[in-house]
Structure to design on (165 residues):
């Protein structure tokens, strides 16, 4: 039997025995959406003054990437806008390294987080927003998936939760 089946059995037993709080605790099983495969790997180069997120959206549309992931990125930016968990927007207008960029693409919409670094600020970042401008170049790897597609359903002001489409 699968792990999920065993958890369901444990929840049923806990409920039947009226074990306070056990059913809720046991119900916290990660949601796994299996069955996808990498259909294509896109290696993207952006040049000076290209807009990071807007350019990536163009790539997703032109290569029909509805379900996938941004695996990695490296480069430099002259401006970047991002927000944190409290939804406070931050725009930095100075040279910075693009140290990391990653996230999932569901129903053609990327949910990307960025890590930036500079000598003055150290490491900083958050949820990538429009308006980030490439300083010299940026190199990004995008995976396009085949198989069961994902979508996001509304779950509040900061986005949605993943589910099978």
């Amino acid at each position: 039997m699968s792990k999920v089946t065993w958890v369901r059995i444990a929840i049923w037993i806990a409920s039947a025995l009226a074990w306070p709080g056990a059913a809720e605790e046991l119900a916290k099983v990660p949601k796994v959406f299996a069955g996808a495969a990498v259909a294509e790997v896109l290696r993207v180069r952006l040049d000076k003054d290209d807009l990071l997120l807007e350019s990536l959206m163009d790539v997703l549309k032109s290569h029909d990437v509805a379900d996938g992931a941004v695996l990695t990125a490296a480069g430099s930016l002259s401006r970047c806008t991002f927000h944190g968990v409290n939804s406070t927007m931050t725009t930095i207008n100075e040279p910075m390294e693009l140290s990391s960029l990653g996230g999932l693409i569901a129903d053609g919409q990327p949910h990307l987080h960025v890590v930036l670094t500079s000598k003055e600020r150290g490491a900083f970042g958050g949820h990538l927003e429009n308006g980030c401008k490439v300083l010299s170049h940026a190199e990004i790897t995008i995976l396009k998936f085949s198989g069961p597609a994902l979508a996001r359903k509304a779950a509040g002001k900061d986005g949605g939760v993943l589910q099978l489409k």
The chain has three helices and nine strands. The radius of gyration is 20 Å. Strands lie at 37-47, 67-83, 89-92, 96-106, 109-118, 122-128, 133-146, 150-154, 160-164. The first helix runs from residue 3 to 16.
